[in-house]
What we know:
7-stranded mixed beta sheet, globular
Amino acid sequence: MDIHLMVMTKELCRIYMGGFIPDPDLFADPAAYQPYVYTQDSCDAYFERHRNLGRIHLAVMLQDEPIGEVVLKKIDHTGKHCTMGISMQSDAFKNRGFGTQAEILALEYAFQKLGLETVYADALLNNHRSQHVLAKAGFRETHRDDAFVYYRCDQADWHK
């Protein structure tokens, strides 16, 4: 499995988002679901929003093709923590171990390259697949509320 992460470029983002198919079952409010329609302008705005917010936007690459994205956000630049989000392009890339490998690589990046101590994540209560992937990557559940399950992974306890 040749999964690796690359810094997301505008061109990679266009390729990734051009094939993006959201899972309607994973919306916090299913009534709010609307099919995704790709436009280059909306994709470019999405890419720029991540940059403007100071997020680290990484492409999940299968060989030379972007099949997902990992975003490190809410980065505490004193070296303490960030929050990680992941999305795969479509069902074609789910249930194949790609998300788990991408999360492990993202944790390596956060801990080794950024020197962070803790990475947080969350998953919708009904997103059991994401919860399973987070646990496999080394996250542990901290708490739940009416909509989400919350996780953390500490560098000191993490064993890849």
